[in-house]
Write a structure and sequence with these properties.
lyase (chains A, B); alpha/beta; 629 residues; 10% strand; 20 helices; ThiC/BzaA/B (chains A, B); homodimer; eight-stranded parallel barrel; three-stranded antiparallel beta sheet
Chain lengths: 629, 629
C-alpha cells in the first residue's frame, strides 16, 4: 500500500496571531511546568495584555510543525512518572474501521505515517483518571498546568472590585493547584486527558473555571477530506476552540481521527456510536455490545479524550418522542432509539454502563453523557423526554463517580430564553454539579443561516447560569457543512458568548481585556483595538473599508463623526477640565444619591464651582478642529 | 438650478420576498382600514403563515414605485378628517440647511422634485398627538391599523397554551383598537406619526406589543450619498426595520432627509442637534436655542416622526463622565456637554423643554429622550452619570405627558449581562413605563467586527425584560460605515433577537412561525424552511453550497448525516410505531412524574406493551436506505 508512508501535503495556518507573542510561564509552584499563553503588545506605553491561548505550538515561531509526524508528546513523562501504566500491542486496525470491505485504501485517506503501535493502559487494578488521583489527594502536573493557565490576568485584576452574579458558582480570587484538585475530586470539573494523547496542553472544564467552547469537525458521508479536517482543527484552535469533536461519518473514520489526534494540542472528543454504526453498514438494529466495545478500545488506544455516550436514551423514554414536533434530532439518540424499538430491549449502553466505565478508567477518558433526547425545536424544549433522560444521566453520573471516572453532561439544543435557567438548575441538581456542556441553545428557530447568533444568545445566558463548556454552532447549522470561514465565525461567536458569561459571573480577570480595548478605543489607538479583539483581521478589514489610508490608523477620529467633531475628543476635554480643578470630579456633586432634587442640589454646587473656573477653562483653549492627517 | 427638476436615478429593491405574497387585511371593526401583511405559502397542504410586514409598497407588485414622486399619502384623509390642522407656507429652505454657504448645489444632493411646500400643523389651541386623542377617548384609524397589524397570527394561536415570563408585561390574547388607545393614553406605547409624514403605515412601540427594531442610516462627513441612503432605507425595511433613523451629518442633510421621508413607509427619526451643529460650523458652543428651534420647525415640516432630544445631559452631570473609561460616547451628549462646559450654564434643551413640547404637539412628533451619558464600555455601565441622566429623563417624561405628547426613552449601550435587568427596572420605575428604546446593549467589548452579535445578546435579553424597540448594531459598529450587506445582517440579527424576546415574554402568536419552520424541517420541506426564515436567500445559498442539486431540495436527508442514515427518519418511524398502537404514546408511560424509579416503572410498562407489538412493528418494514435522488 504505497501511499501509507508517503508524506501527505496538508497545509495548516501557522505563525503568531497579529500583534501578539507566544509566551511560556512557569508554574509558581516551581515544579518546572511551563504554561503556554499569548501576550498582546500595546502602544502608548500600555502594559501588554495576557490572554488564554488554545492555539498550541502552531502559533509558536520556535516550533517546526510537521503534520506527518505530529506534535511533541509533552505529557509523556508525566504519565510514565506515575508508573501505573503499561505498554501493549495495539489492536490490529481492521478494514471496517475505515468503512472498507478490503485492505485497498485507493480513493481513501492515507494512513498516518506513525500511528501508535504500542499504546498505554492502566496496569491491572489501577485507575489512571485525574479524578482518581485527585481523590487520593495527589496534585498532578496536569492540575498545576490548569491552575497557572486559569490564573491568567488575575494579578492585573487584583485591585479590581469583583462584581457579578454567579448563581452559586464559587470562583476564587486565585486558582491554586489544590483548588483544581478539589474541583476535580468532587466532580465539579474535569481535565480530559487520555494517556494516549500526550500531545495535549491540559485544560479544565467546570463552572468555577473560564467558560470553554468546543468546535465540531469531521468528514461526512457527503463531503470533506482529511487535509481539510486537520486544517479545520488547527484553524478552530487558532481562534479559540478549547476542545475539538471529530464527528466523522462515512469512510476512513479511523485514519482521519489518527491525523487529527496526533496533531491536536487540545482534547479531542468523539461519538463512538457513529463509527460502530458504519461497521454494521448503517443498520442500527445490527449494533451489538461487542462491536461497540471493540470500537471504544480502538478509539481509546488512539487517544480520544472524551466519549459521547448516549446511555440515557432508555427504552421507556423513546415513545415520549413521538409526541414532539421534531422527534429525536440527536443522531446518536435516534440510533439508540431505533435499536431499542427494533429489539424491544433496554439500551445496551445503559445495560453495559459499568463495563464502559472500566474502559474509561484504564485510559482516563471522560464521559460526555449524551442528550440523545434533546429538543430539536422551541416547541419541544424542556419536555418529558428531555428531562426523563436528564434524570437518568444524573443516575449514571453517580455510577461513574463511584469508579472515579470523570463526567460531563450534554445539554440542549433549542430552548426559548425563559426556559433556559430551568435546564441549568435541573442539571446542577440532578447531576451533582458535574460540568454541563450545551449546544447553544438556539432561542428561536426562524433564522436558519444565522443560527450561530440565535444559539450564541442562548449560549451566553446558559454560560452565565453555570454551563462549563459551550458547543459552537456555525452559520451553516441545519443547512450544510461548515467551511473554514464558517468555523472561524462559529468559534469567534462562541468565544464572545463565553467571555460575556465570564464577565456576568464576575470572573475576577475577565474585564481586563474589555477595559484595555475600551481604553484603546477612547484613545484612538486603532492598532491596539484591532489586536485586542477576538478577530484582529476582520476588525482591521472593516475599518479599512471606510478609511483605508494608513494615516487613519493613527487619526484621532473615526468614520462615524469624521474629523470635524468627535465625542471622544470632547470627553477628553471634560476630563482635562475636571483634572485642572484642584478637586476631584466627585466634589462637583452634592451627593451620590440620585433623583431630581439631588440633581438640583448638585447642579447648584456644580455651577458654583464652575463659575470660578470659567476663565481657567477658556485659557485651556477649546481646540475644535482635529488634525486631518 | 437645473438639476432640481431632473429625475434622479435611484435604484431600490422591489418585488415580493421569495415564497410570500403581500396581502391587505380589513380591520375587523369594518371601518375600511386595510392593513398590509405578508403571507408565506407552504407546500404539502400546510396553511400559509402570516407575518408582520414592514416593507411597505416596495414588495407589492401592484404598486408602481417612483422614487422621484414618493409614496402615496395613505394617511392624508385620516389626518384632515379630524379637522384640527391647517396648511401654511413652509419655512424657506436656507443654504445652511444643507451645509452650503451659497445656493449652488453643484456637487451636492439634488433637491427632491416635489418637496412639501404647504405643510400641516395643528390649528391654534389644538393638539394633534395620538396621545391627546387617546386621552380624549378617541380611537383613531391609526390605532385601528396598529391593532389589526399586531393581532397577526393570534387566531392561529388561539388553542395555544400561553407560556412565558413577561416580567410585568400585560400582553392580551387579542389586541383591540381600545387596547391600543388605552396603552397610548397611559404613555405605555407610542404611535410615531408626524402629520406631515402621511406615507407611513402606522405602528406602535410599547412593551405590550411586538418588540420592534430600528435601523440607522444617513450620510456621514466622510462618505455615502443620497441614492445609497434611500436604497438602504428601502433595503432595511424590506428585511424588517420597523423605524429608520436618519443620522446624516455633513452637507445636504435637508435634501437627503426629504428623499428618505417621502419614500419611507415607516416612521423616520432624527437627532436635530446634528443638523443644528452643522449650521454653526461644528462649533458646539455657538449653538443657540433659536438655531435649534428653527431646525426643529424645519424637520417638523418635512415630516420627521420622532426627535432624539438630549435634554437629560444637565450641567451637573457632565463632570461625572470625567471618571469614566470611555467618557461620553453619545455624539449628541458630547455636543451638549461641551456647550454646558463652555457657557457654564444649564443645557438649553433642558431649559426650553416646554417650548420644544409645544412644537411636538403641533405636528405629533414623539420624543425619543436621548441618553447622552450612556456608557461606552463595560466598565462604565450603570454608573452615576448614566442613572443621573435617567432620573432627569423620567422627570421630563412626566412633563411631556402633561401636554399629551408621546415619549420614548433611549437606553444603553454597553452593559454586562448581570447589569442589564437593573437598566430595565429603573427605566420602568422612573419613566412610568414609557417605552424603552435601547442600543444593544453590547455584553462585551472584545469583539469589534462582531458587535451585531455582542449587542444582539444584550438586545434579546433587554427585549425580554421589557424594552419596546431595539436599535440595531451592524458588524461595522466602532469600525466603519455599514454598507448594504451590513445593514441586512444588522436588521436580521435584531429581528431574531426581538423575536426571541417575544417568545420569552409569552407573546400569544410568536411561536407560530417557529413551529411552522420546525415542522418543515422535520418533514424535509426545504423550500418551506427557506421561505419561513428571516433571510430566505442566505438560507438557500448556504444549503446549496453543500448540496447544490435541485433534487436535494426535496431529498429526505441533509448534508449532516447524508442519505444512508437520518435522525428525522428514525423519529418518523418512532412516531408511526406509536401511532400504530391503539393507544396514545402516553400510555407507554407509568406516570408523568420523573426520576429513576418512575423510569424503571414506565420501562416495565413499556416493555410489556412493546413485546405484544413486536411482530406488528416488524411487519411495518424497517426500510433504512432512503431514496437517493
Amino acid at each position: 500500500m504505497a501511499d501509507i508512508n508517503s508524506p501527505v501535503e496538508i497545509g495548516v495556518t501557522t505563525g503568531p496571531i497579529r500583534g501578539s507573542r507566544k509566551i511560556h510561564v512557569g508554574a509558581r509552584t516551581g515544579s518546572g511546568v511551563q504554561v503556554a499563553m499569548r501576550e498582546i503588545d500595546l502602544e502608548g506605553g500600555e502594559a501588554p495584555v495576557r490572554v488564554y491561548d488554545t492555539s498550541g505550538p502552531y502559533t509558536d515561531p520556535n516550533v517546526a510543525i510537521d503534520i506527518n509526524s505530529g506534535l511533541e508528546a509533552k505529557r509523556a513523562d508525566w504519565i510514565r512518572a506515575r508508573s501505573d501504566v503499561e505498554e501493549y500491542d495495539a489492536r490490529e486496525v481492521k478494514p471496517e474501521d475505515n468503512g472498507q470491505l478490503g485492505p485497498d485504501r485507493s480513493g481513501g485517506v492515507p494512513q498516518f505515517p506513525n500511528p501508535v503501535k504500542r499504546p498505554l493502559r492502566a496496569k491491572a487494578g489501577h485507575n489512571v483518571s485525574q479524578m482518581h488521583y485527585a481523590r487520593k489527594g495527589i496534585i498532578t502536573p496536569e492540575m498545576e498546568y490548569v491552575a497557572e493557565r486559569e490564573n491568567l490576568g488575575r494579578e492585573l485584576a487584583k485591585d479590581f472590585v469583583r462584581d457579578g452574579e454567579g448563581w452559586g458558582a464559587e470562583i476564587p480570587d486565585v486558582i491554586t493547584p489544590e483548588f483544581v484538585r478539589s474541583e476535580v475530586a468532587r466532580g465539579r470539573a474535569i481535565i480530559p486527558n487520555n494517556i494516549n494523547h500526550p500531545e495535549t496542553e491540559p485544560m479544565a472544564i467546570g463552572r468555577n473555571f473560564l467558560v470553554k467552547i468546543n468546535a465540531n469537525i469531521g468528514n461526512s458521508a457527503v463531503a470533506s477530506d482529511v487535509a481539510q479536517e486537520v486544517d479545520k482543527m488547527v484553524w478552530a484552535t487558532r481562534w479559540g476552540a478549547d476542545t475539538i469533536m471529530d464527528l466523522s461519518t462515512g469512510r476512513n473514520i479511523h485514519d482521519t481521527r489518527e491525523w487529527i489526534i496526533r496533531n491536536s494540542a487540545v482534547p479531542v472528543g468523539t461519538v463512538p456510536i457513529y463509527q460502530a454504526l458504519e461497521k454494521v453498514g448503517g443498520v442500527a438494529e445490527d449494533l451489538t455490545w461487542d462491536i461497540f466495545r471493540d470500537t471504544l478500545i480502538e478509539q481509546a488506544e488512539q487517544g480520544v479524550d472524551y466519549f459521547t455516550i448516549h446511555a440515557g436514551v432508555r427504552l421507556a423514554y423513546v415513545p415520549m418522542a413521538a409526541k414532539r414536533v421534531t422527534g429525536i434530532v440527536s443522531r446518536g439518540g435516534s440510533i439508540m432509539a431505533k435499536w431499542c424499538l427494533a429489539h424491544h430491549k433496554e439500551s445496551f449502553l445503559y445495560e453495559h454502563f459499568d463495563d464502559i466505565t472500566e474502559i474509561m478508567k484504564a485510559y482516563d477518558i471522560a464521559y460526555s453523557l449524551g442528550d440523545g433526547l434533546r429538543p430539536g425545536s422551541i416547541a419541544d424544549a424542556n419536555d418529558e423526554a428531555q428531562f426523563s433522560e436528564l434524570y437518568t444521566l444524573g443516575e449514571l453520573t453517580h455510577r461513574a463517580w463511584e469508579h472515579d471516572v470523570q463526567v460531563m453532561i450534554e445539554g440542549p439544543g433549542h430552548v426559548p430564553m425563559h426556559k433556559i435557567k430551568e435546564n441549568m438548575e435541573k442539571q446542577l441538581e440532578v447531576c451533582g454539579e458535574a460540568p454541563f456542556y450545551t449546544l447553544g441553545p438556539l432561542v428561536t428557530d426562524i433564522a436558519p443561516g444565522y443560527d450561530h447568533i440565535t444559539s450564541g444568545i442562548g449560549a451566553a445566558q446558559i454560560g452565565w447560569y453555570g454551563t462549563a463548556m459551550l458547543c459552537y454552532v456555525t452559520p451553516k447549522e441545519h443547512l450544510g457543512l461548515p467551511d473554514r470561514d464558517d468555523v472561524k465565525v462559529g468559534v469567534v461567536t462562541y468565544k464572545l458568548a463565553a467571555h460575556a458569561a465570564d464577565l456576568a459571573k464576575g470572573h475576577p480577570a475577565a474585564q481586563v481585556r474589555d477595559d484595555a480595548l475600551s481604553k484603546a478605543r477612547f484613545e484612538f489607538r486603532w492598532r491596539d483595538q484591532f489586536n485586542l479583539s477576538l478577530d484582529p483581521e476582520t476588525a482591521e478589514e472593516f475599518h479599512d473599508q471606510t478609511l483605508p489610508a494608513e494615516g487613519a490608523k493613527t487619526a484621532h477620529f473615526c468614520s462615524m463623526c469624521g474629523p470635524r467633531f468627535c465625542s471622544m475628543q470632547i470627553s477628553q476635554e471634560v476630563r482635562d477640565f475636571a483634572a485642572k480643578q484642584n478637586e476631584s470630579p466627585e466634589s462637583f456633586l452634592a451627593s451620590e444619591k440620585l433623583g431630581a432634587d439631588t440633581a438640583e442640589a448638585s447642579r447648584q454646587a456644580a455651577i458654583k464651582g464652575m463659575e470660578e473656573m470659567s476663565e481657567k477653562y477658556k485659557d485651556m483653549g477649546q481646540k475644535l478642529y482635529l488634525p486631518e492627517e
